[in-house]
Amino acid sequence: QDKGICIYNSKKETLEIPGKYRNWKYGQINTILSLENELWFSTETSGLVHDNGMERSRLQNFENSEKLNFSKTGSLLSDNENNIWFTYEGGVVRSTGSKLQFLSLPDSSPINFVHSLLCDSKNNLWFTPDQGLVSCSLVDSVKEKIKKFSRYYTIN
C-alpha cells in the first residue's frame, strides 16, 4: 500500500518493481490515473506524483503551490481535454500538469472534503464535497457556471 508500484506478470506469477519505483518515497497511493503513456498518482502524504512514461526519466512530485498545500490528495480524473482534476483536503484543483486552477462555490463557502469526481459527456465536472453535490462547466467560464445542489431529491 505504501511501497509504490509493482507489475504482476500473470504468466510467470511474479511481481516486478520497475527501476524508477524501487526507491518509492511518496507513501501510500490513493488513486492511479493512466493517460496514454503517463501515470499520475495521488498520495496520502506527498501530493501528486507524475511519471511521464519515459524509461530514464525521474518521477515528478507536486505537493505545494503558491496558494495551497495539497500533501494529501484523493480522487484523480482526466477530462476530454486531458486536464487533470484532483481532490485534496481543501477542495478541487484542475491542472494541465504545469498550471493550476482553483474552484470556489458561488456563495464563497469553502469546499470541504471531496468524496468523488466525475466528468460527464457534456464536459461538466461533478463532485461531492461534504456540502452536497456540485457541478460546473468545463467549457464556459467556471466561476459563472458552478451550481451547488444542497437538497436531496428522491427519484421515483
Task: List the topology elements.
Layout lengths: L6 E3 L4 E3 L12 E7 L2 E6 L4 E4 L8 E3 L10 E6 L5 E5 L2 E5 L4 E3 L11 E6 L4 E6 L3 E5 L4 H4 L1 E3 L7
Antiparallel strand pairs: 1-2, 3-4, 4-5, 5-6, 7-8, 8-9, 9-10, 11-12, 12-13, 13-14
Question: What do these coordinates show?
Answer:
The protein has one helix and 14 strands; from the N terminus they run βββββββββββββαβ. It has a four-stranded antiparallel β-sheet with strand order 3-4-5-6, with no helix packed on it. It has a four-stranded antiparallel β-sheet with strand order 7-8-9-10, with no helix packed on it. A four-stranded antiparallel β-sheet has the order 11-12-13-14. It is mainly beta and 156 residues long. The radius of gyration is 17 Å and the shape is elongated.
Question: What descriptors fit this protein?
Answer:
156 residues, mainly beta, four-stranded antiparallel sheet, 14 strands, 42% strand, elongated
Strand order of the largest sheet: 3-4-5-6
Number of strands: 14
The proportion of residues in beta strands is: 35-45%
The residue ranges in which pLDDT falls below 50 over 5 or more consecutive positions are none
Give a quick summary of the entry.
The protein has 1 helix and 14 strands; from the N terminus they run E-E-E-E-E-E-E-E-E-E-E-E-E-H-E. The protein is mostly beta strands and 156 residues long.
